[in-house]
Every structure is written in C-alpha cells, then in structure tokens.
C-alpha cells in the first residue's frame, strides 16, 4: 500500500487505542508478577455450570438458538431480575441474550443514536464507553467526577452537561474502575434529571451482584424509570464467567426490538453452549455467587485498609472488585507509578488515566486475587512507597 | 450456643484461609479491631467452638511418610443406657484412629485409621478392633489415593489462567 491513501475508516483511525494494551505488553514477558491488573474474578466458573455446558455439547446442542436467546434462558433471566432486583421484563419481547455485556452496550448505542447525538459518560469509566459511542456515530460528552465526592456524579454537574442533542447517560454502578456504588437517593436524583430532560439511561449493572455494604438498587426499579432505562448485565463478574462471553440487555419493547434487529444481522445469537451454562448458573449458581461475594468483601476490607496503612489513601469502594487509591503522595504520574511498580516490585496495576482524565493520580487495583497474593502485594507496595515517598 | 455475626465472620475467615493468617489481617477482613478479634478468638477457643488450627498436608509427597489410611465399617451391638457411645469411646481412644462417626445405614460406626503399613492396620483391626466385646463385624477399605481432602484438592493446577492486565 502506498502512503497516499488509507483504506481505513476515519472514525476508526481516530479512535485512541486502549492504554491497557501497553501495560499488558510490558507485563506479559515478566515472571513472578502479582497481577492486580485484571478486570475479572480469580474464581473459575463453578463446576456445575461448566458441567452443564459439557452436557449440552454431549447432547448435541450445537446449532443456533433464537436470535434473542433460548426462551428458557430468557424466562430464567426474567425471574432472576424480578427476584433479585424487583424489575419485571417480558422474556418474549424485552430481553435479549448477548455476547457479553459489551455487545449489549454496542447494540444499545447503535439502536438509539443518530449521527451527532450526545451521550454523557461519567469518568473515570470503563474503557469501552467512549469508543463505542463514537463508533455508533454519537458524540461522547465526558464528565469528570472527583475523589472528594467519592467519584460520584453531582446532579448539577449532570445538568450542566446536558444540551439539546443529549440522548442518553451511561451509568455504571458499582463502577469500574473506582468501585463506587450510588445509593438509591443518588440514583433518584439522576432519575429526576432524566425525566426532566427526557433522556435515556444506559445502566451498566454488570457488577450488581457485587454490592457489599447496602442493598443494590437497579435503575429500572426506580419509579417511572423502566421506560427510559436500557439495563445491561451479564454473567461475567458475579457468576465468574468472563470467558463465556454471555450477557443480556433488558429494555422497553420498542428499543428491545430495535436492538434485536441489529443483533440478528450482526451476531445471529449468543453461543449456544454458553447459553446452557448461563441457564445452569441461574438455576443453581446462587450459593456460588454468595460465597464469592463474601470472599471479595473480606479481601476488599483487608486490602483497602492495608493500602491506607502503607500510605496510599483510598476510599472504601461499595462494590465490584476494584480499589482506586490515590498515588499523589509519590509525586509520580499514574503511568509512571504503574510502570515503576511493575518493573521494580513486579506488581501489576492499571494507571487511572486510562479510564479518563479524572483518573489521573490514581491506579486501579483489582483485589480479585488470593489473600496470600494480596498480603504479598501489600508488602511490595509498602517497600515501593518507602523508595518513592515524595520528600 | 448463639454466636454474633462477627464471631461467625471470624470463624468463616479462619476456615477459608491459611491457619497462619495474622490476627491483624483477620481484624481487617472482618472490619473490627485487633483487640476485639483476639477477644473473639479466646472466647471461641474457650467454648471449644474453635477446636484446633489445622494444616492440610499431602504426606504422599514425602518420602518415607507415605503411610496408609483405611476406612473401616464397623457393626456393633449397642448397650442399654449408653447406646453406641461407650464402644465409640473405646475405639476413638486408640491413637491410630483418626475419626469415628456414627452412621445411618448398613453399619454403625465408620472408623478411619492411619498406620505406617498395611500390616500395621491389619494388625490393629484383627487384634484391637475385632476383639472388642460389642463389635460384631468389620469391613476394611484401604484408601488408594487422596484426590480431595477436607475441601482441598491435592493435585490441582493452581496456575492463574487470566491475562495479566485486562479492562
């Protein structure tokens, strides 16, 4: 190819590559690394779930399912959402089984956005929101939250960001990377704004199962909000099924059917064996989820208190499995801190700026790893801070 | 006895972690003070709720320490007034006996014995166990391989299969 003409789409060319890639490459060749850099559970999928997928293969369930997913699975999802979160969706017309929550997010955005429509993204945020909005033709409008506010969005911040082109807000609670969980009252405040300006809310509830200190409130359960909520969830985090790539999206019929149109052309259906696994997870996996949740909570308590003790101030995250400590005491940037910590102490964390500018000065540490490794990681971080404490 | 939520929390932490976990770390995990954790541990030890801090050892990996384990189904004649308890006591007092359970079903007591060799176990069964007055019969099963013991899988590939950094 001569240098004059690019065959790539301008949108894609202008898309920033994920900053996580560089750290992955840096850490990949090293031995003895303790990784706090992973956005997934350390538990492997419960055996009963894996076994159900194997059985489905043995029985020959290797063909397509309905576009929206196995009806039996959608019925189980409807029951689960009702029982766990008090929201009711019709398995016939309001639930779509997707290839991970990521695909759910993609088809949601593509179903609702016209070129130039604005979508509010609250930072620090999961790395995919901004690029996916852009790819769907929308314009991401980023709002930066502050550590002083526990990385929570203030209602006035939200209102200030709304324009005539604003179509939707993406919410993620508990949040990746901060672990911050919004209370029912805080969600209510957002709901009022959504109502006032007639906005949709894409509620990414993938970490809903991992709320440690208080009851989880699904955005769709707030009065009058179901009709403007696209609820995205899945099995990856709570059920420890990241590699299965299985999620789902619940939305009012009109939006749901629009998403299904995209889904049927672009994906056909989610993988059949993964759907059978998810079915088993919903039928019998509740106690596994409870056990994992207890374990994460104890590790969170240990890890966050220990971080504060060795000198990295960190708020107590209400959910997910991330701690988001400030590293400002070292005088290093997030990237410098993460790179030095990896090279000098062999502990991998993710620099906060990857999740948006407001993440600068912080790093994301996943505590989804064994207690023994967390204890060792704290030792190494403490040693590191002794070398790098700002005078 | 009725335990508090924090007492149960401490027990669960001990059950699911290494016996060597420092008290300070237990305190952090349960979100209580070190002093309170120590009080809870003392109380639970005193009440024999917390019986022992154990380690799980795979002796089969240690040369010269392989040993043998047998599970013995024992049928006994219970005695008026003391039922199975008296004969159970006579059995569990032998140091070779690791566990004794009263069972429902085809036999009465399940006895787990550890010995250095098959001969040693055989001798114990024929000389000590079968000769007890209330013992009617014994069936001895030798354990060939331990896959999982007390919730711990012995031969497991523990490698973390996750990529090092992911979003």
TrEMBL record, chain A:
Per UniProt, residues of the Aminotransferase class I/classII large domain are 32-381
EC class:
transferase
- Alphabetical list of SUPFAM superfamilies matching this protein: PLP-dependent transferases (SSF53383)
Swiss-Prot/TrEMBL GO biological process terms:
amino acid metabolic process
* Cofactor(s) needed for function: pyridoxal 5'-phosphate
Record's keyword terms, sorted:
Aminotransferase, Pyridoxal phosphate, Transferase
Q: What EC number(s) does its UniProt record assign?
A: 2.6.1.-
> A Gene Ontology molecular-function term?
transaminase activity
Instruction: Provide an example Pfam family for this protein.
Output: Aminotran_1_2
Q: Which InterPro entries match?
A: Aminotransferase_I/II_large (IPR004839), AspAT/PAT-like (IPR050596), NHTrfase_class1_PyrdxlP-BS (IPR004838), PyrdxlP-dep_Trfase (IPR015424), PyrdxlP-dep_Trfase_major (IPR015421), PyrdxlP-dep_Trfase_small (IPR015422)
Family stated for the protein in its record = Belongs to the class-I pyridoxal-phosphate-dependent aminotransferase family.
UniProt-recorded name of the protein: Aminotransferase
From TrEMBL, chain B:
Q: InterPro entries recorded for this chain? A: Dimeric_a/b-barrel, HTH-Siroheme_Decarb, HTH_MarR-typ, Tscrpt_reg_AsnC-like, Tscrpt_reg_AsnC/Lrp_C, WH-like_DNA-bd_sf, WH_DNA-bd_sf
* Signal sequence coordinates: none
Identify the Gene3D superfamilies for this entry: 3.30.70.920, Winged helix-like DNA-binding domain superfamily/Winged helix DNA-binding domain (1.10.10.10)
SMART domains xrefs:
HTH_ASNC
- Extract the Pfam families matched here: AsnC_trans_reg (PF01037), MarR (PF01047)
An example Gene Ontology molecular-function term: DNA-binding transcription factor activity
Any idea where the HTH marR-type domain is?
Answer: 3-55
Can you give the residue ranges of the Transcription regulator AsnC/Lrp ligand binding domain?
Answer: 72-145
Name of this chain's protein = AsnC family transcriptional regulator
Provide the species name.
Cytobacillus firmus DS1
